[in-house]
Amino acid sequence: MTHTTTQGTQAAGQTPSAIRHRESIIGTYRTEVAIAVAIALLALAVGSQVPQALSWGNFANVTQAGAPLIIMSLGVLLVVITGGIDLSVGSVFSLTGMVTAQAMAYGYGGVAASMFGLGVGLVFGSINGFLVTIAGLAPFVVTLITFAVAGSLAFIVTNGRSMPIPDPDFWLLNSGSLIPGLPNYILFCLVLLVAIEIFLKKMVAGRWFYAVGSSAAAAYLLGIPVKRTKFFAYVASSLLASFSGLLTISYILNAESTAGSSLMLQAIAAVVIGGASLLGGTGTAVGAVLGALMITVIQNGVNLIGINSFWQGSVTGLAILIAVVIDRFSKSRRGAG
């Protein structure tokens, strides 16, 4: 009987190893699958009230509006996995936009101005990494300081004025198509998602992040370069925050000194909703992306239904609470098992 069942399974193209592999993938991404289902249910719920919510045009708007948050969340994820926190990403996002716009106002082209913008992320990421790893300061304190500094510089650069983007071709960074039929904002999100997920799951250096987040002392004893790993995480977080800032000003063709004021909390929320623990050692790129999409879908739904936008923060906070409670409950059950 067993032999017959095995033959039938293999005949259907489902070898035992393939079945085990599929079950392993489902087990690994159980939280992510649940989030994806929740996003679909949210979209359907909003669509039942406002049919246009399920239109292709609204889907495009949601993905384009959510792309900067997705990219920023991927950077924050790397820091959170190592057991740290990055509160400066919102201010780095804002300062990047202002510096880039100011550089264009001085006559630099889009590419050169973008390099100045990315330089903001490189500088602040390096400062965060140095103070956390070399100076040994607490990540919360360090990134709170750089949050304040970058935020004030975003006002100082242009005296608090908004800056239009003078380069007529800069919109191509966000809405152009390096691959015909695929907008750049989707392409960038997909490439970063795949690259970071492969890095974390398949590469030795990526596994170091989880080891450092689980126990930095144990990781050090195993010969893992703890300080280098943490330093890289903070630099990557700030660079991705800067890149998300470039995408945003490319989308709206205007730079605002307060553009990233709420994004820091949203990025951390996306990472937590996506299954990462603020204690470190867990999290996936897929989860962070889905968490960012859930926040964007919630915001979009609130706007379409006509609910006062002031409720967005409360709804997002409730989503975080539910995600944390579910995560704590599932971990308790696994521990009891």
TrEMBL record:
Q: Which GO terms describe its molecular function?
A: transmembrane transporter activity
Q: Which UniProt keywords apply?
A: Cell membrane, Membrane, Transmembrane, Transmembrane helix
Q: Where are the transmembrane segments?
A: 33-54, 66-85, 105-124, 131-157, 177-196, 208-226, 232-253, 265-298, 310-329
Q: How does it sit in the membrane?
A: Multi-pass membrane protein
The source's domain of life comes to: Bacteria
Mind telling me which GO cellular component terms the entry cites?
plasma membrane
Q: Where in the cell is it found?
A: Cell membrane
UniProt KW Membrane keyword: yes
Q: Tell me what this protein is called.
A: Ribose transport system permease protein
Q: Tell me the organism.
A: Sinorhizobium americanum
